[in-house]
Amino acid sequence: MTTPVRRRARTLRQRILGYITGAVDRLRAAWSILATAQTRLLNALTDIRPGRSAGTGTRLRAALAAFNTSLGAFARTAGAFAERWASSDLPLIYREGAWTMLDNAARPNRLFQWTDRHRGAVTSLSAQYYADLTARITEALRRARAFLRAVQDAARDALSVRIDAAALRRDHPLDTVIYANNARHPVEAWARAAITWQAVTTANTAAARTALDELGTDWVEVRDGPDCGWTSHDDPDRANRTLRTVQDALAYPSAHPHCIREFLPRLDLIGRAEIRSGALL
């Protein structure tokens, strides 16, 4: 069981890093449209006194119209990113995962073909991650519209001497993403975690599927961080340098955001039934 695996020149993470970096940059650029629009609107409010007057109304309408235009630009840019990521980038990342598995087995890349099983796997992942991204985009637009309503309410308050731009930014930070626990995280931190998770999960799913379908082995060797657990980072069942069945690998292709997990083929274990999944090397 300790037969060394031949690792090729580039790790899986190195092969997909360009996709991850490019995607994070595009997401950050999309969200910067919102953040920039918010800053411009708040800056415009410094010259607007609350209440109703002809001058106030004209300037406010112009500022609100500019913000709404930016909302449309954000929706188009972010939506185009989600479509490209799901329909183009993720299939390429899937193929990189398959090719890396073949490289590590010293087999030619041409063995990988888009079979029904591979197409089904990447289609399922792409649909799931497209839905995740579009949900984030929808939530960002909802928060931006809530900010816009708050601006309008503040501008109508004739009892106020000025509009509190700092409070509006504090209560409606459009350069953040809200997690399920209501914690706010910078857009870049969320984007890097989400994109890395999706890319690593997709590539490792391809690697595990290729080990079974193209290489004919039920076993893979896991390389991971020394402290990373199998099902989650804190799982006491450590992942690094263990043997796992392909089915277990498909169930847990990644343990957490920023996971560096990689699967290597164990062709020497073909037909071995006495090994326990999770056995240490």
TrEMBL record:
<protein>
    <submittedName>
        <fullName>Sle1_126 protein</fullName>
    </submittedName>
</protein>
<keyword id="KW-0614">Plasmid</keyword>
